[in-house]
Every structure is written in structure tokens, then in C-alpha cells.
Amino acid sequence: MTRLPLAVLYTAALAVALAGCAGSPELARLTGMPDTSGMPKQSPDASVILYLLSNVNCEFFVDGQSLITGRAVKLLVTKGEHRVVCKPEGYRAKEEHVIPPFDPNHPIRFTFLLEDRLTPDTR
Asked: 75-106 pLDDT, tens per residue?
């Protein structure tokens, strides 16, 4: 009888256990990888997590495409340079050019001050 190395048996058992939970919170919990199943995507093949923060509620655009609204958001983008625009209601929009990889401990921040507010004559 041929004996298989323990690592092969462990890998096979883990693959069988995880087969039904690809892209699920269970897979994220078991592997330590973030669950990306519900995140908005910049394109169907997007796989890089982009963390965005704002001190006011914003609509976030990536490369001209509206993806999500909020103050602290995560979304998926492709590798390569991207143009991110944060458009809050009542404030002028702000833009950043970003290139992956992104550090979850240092999200892209958009800060809006009183002087960024739109007045009736600037709208």
C-alpha cells in the first residue's frame, strides 16, 4: 500500500470541506481572506480590494463608473491605474489617481471642509 504524505491528505480534505463555500463568508473565515462576494466590482474580472473613506456621505466613481455610496466602503478593481472620484451632495467632487496594491490599514481618504461646500452661485 502506498502512503501519501500528510500534506497531500490535508490539502485534499480541506479542498473537499471548502468545495461548497467558494466566495462565501465561511471560506473567508476559514482561510483568513476577506469575503469579496458582496463587494461592488469595477469590472467582472476585478479582484483587488480598494478601501475608501470620506468624512461625508459620497457617491464613489471608479474610472467614470458609479459603484457605491457611503463613508467607509470597499470595492473591487482591476490591477493598474484608476481614477477615483468622490462626489458628496452639497460639496465639490474630489479626485485621486490610484495604483494597486492597496494597504487596508491606509485607505484612500477624501476629506471635505467647509470651504469645499457649494454655495448657490457655485452649483
From this structure: 999 999 999 999 999 999 999 999 998 888 89
Is there a single domain that holds both residue 59 and residue 30? no
- 108 is written with which cell numbers? 484612500
Residues paired with 60 in a beta bridge: 68, 86
Q: Model-level pTM greater than 0.85?
A: no
The amino acid sitting at 11 is T
* Coil vs helix vs strand at 113: coil
**Does 78 lie in the same domain as 19?**
no
Q: What are phi and psi of 89, to 5 degrees?
A: -70, 130
122 and 76 within one domain: yes
Eight-state DSSP code of residue 79:
S
Which of the residues in the chain have pLDDT under 70? 1-32, 122-123
Specify whether 31 is located in the same domain as 44. Answer: no
Q: What domain range is 61 assigned to?
A: 39-123
Q: How many domains does one find in the chain?
A: 2
Rounded CA separation 123/115 (Å): 14
Q: Do the beta carbons of residue 18 and residue 27 sit within 8 Å?
A: yes
